[in-house]
Amino acid sequence: MNMHGLYGVAIMLMIAGCAGGDDNTASEGAKEEKALELLPQQVAMAGVKTGHIEYRMISGVINATGEIDVPPEAKAAVTAPSGGYIVESMLLPGMYVKKGQRLAKLTNPEYITLQQEYLETASELQFAEQEYVRQQTLGEQNATAIKKLQQSESTFNTLKGRIAGLKARLEMIGVDIAALNAGNIQPSISIKSPISGYIASANFAQGSYVEAKEVVFEIVNTDDMHVELNVFEQDIAKVLKGQKMRIRAIGSDATYSGTVLLISPQRNADQRTFSVHGHIDEPGKELRTGMFVEAGIFVNSDTVPALPEEAIVYQDTKPCVLVGEGNRFELREVSTGARLDGWIEIMNPGPLLQENIVTEGAARVLAAMKKG
Prior knowledge:
Layout: H1 3-32, E1 35-37, H2 40-45, E2 49-51, E3 54-69, E4 75-79, E5 84-88, E6 96-97, E7 102-107, H3 109-138, H4 143-172, H5 177-181, E8 188-192, E9 197-202, E10 209-210, E11 215-220, E12 226-232, E13 244-249, E14 255-267, E15 273-280, E16 292-308, E17 313-315, E18 318-325, E19 328-333, E20 336-340, E21 343-346, E22 357-360, H6 362-371
Antiparallel strand pairs: 1-19, 2-22, 3-12, 3-16, 4-11, 5-7, 5-10, 6-9, 7-8, 9-11, 12-15, 13-14, 13-16, 14-15, 16-21, 17-18, 18-19, 20-21
Helix pairs in contact: 3-4
């Protein structure tokens, strides 16, 4: 081969060698897109800790919204027993009252008139009873005597019915009948609390007139607070009595545990949800009736492969984990499932079961990987 031929071969070999070198570099670059090697001090600064996939009891979670409420018997709309003027009440919303405690005092001239009528009728009844007994004692069988006996009996029974009606009316508005029978007319009556609890509203002004049966106070007993949740119809079949739940009031970081007690058999008419009644195990003082809450109901508990939630990082919105040996870390895509108490289910654990996985500091390693 002449010299020109040798030069040609040499040049071709050089070109081929350069091309081969570029392919190797590109291949290594592609290989290292999801890998990173850190210095030991960088690993320490990132707070990197590794671990393995563990098997944990994790439930599926059904999310729901609702509000804090109390049972019907723990709420009272307190009305005026009879129309009158409010002359005394020092209570404000938020104050605690006991069952039977006086909430306000009412006055009205009609109270006095009604008590006078009762006393007058009682006096007439006493006379009518004496007359009836007298006519019975006479025992005369002539027509006139029989007529008088019948008249006295009719008068006695009429007055007896009238006094019973007046007594019932007075008792309904809170008049002390024993004191009235002793001649003590009471110019005022009291509005009393039917339950113990907190005053939710006070609907009056001092000195104002309130009608009979008008709601003057609303009282709520918060000793037995619960949640009323709305669960979508596609999820309701998974909800069972006795299942545990986590509850959080909107705007609060505090969470409370609870239990499903009742499930409505009928769908709410205005929305495609079912009502679920839940008991709150230990309600906090910050909870108030009517508060909007978010809740998670734990269903289908099972032991599943899981990692701490901190181990999951996201690359292009896809969940991933970092596997590492020494100072070298590699990004692996995973499929995640249910979450509970800071742990998350790994749906495709097979390739990762024997791997060291970054459980702390994963986000910092990923940030360094993106910079590199």
